Amino acid sequence: MNYRNSDLINQLVFYCVKQPVIYLLMITGILLEFMIQFPFMVICALENLFRKKAQ
Fold first, then answer.
1. 0.70 exceeded by pTM
2. What is the pLDDT of residues 4-46, one digit of tens each?
3. Where do the domains of the chain lie?
């Protein structure tokens, strides 16, 4: 019985602690990637605008 109980506790810990942490890490990773790419996207858009104006 004790082993089953500890297994249940492990499942609860997994669902309450580990899963939200994994989701948070994924979300922060996506946000960081977007924050890194955003300036480059803006710079590329501005370059395209200036090239069109120059032509």
1. no
2. 678 888 888 888 888 888 899 999 999 999 999 999 999 999 9
3. 1-55
- What does the alpha-carbon distance between residue 4 and residue 2 come to, in Å, rounded to a whole number? 5
The structure tokens listed for 32 are 């960081």
Distance separating alpha carbons of residues 39 and 20, to the nearest angstrom: 29
| Angle (CA) 52 53 55, round 5° | 65
How many angstroms separate the CA atoms of 44 and 38, rounded?
10
Rounded Cα distance between 9 and 18, Å, is 13
Helix (H) or strand (E) holding 55: none
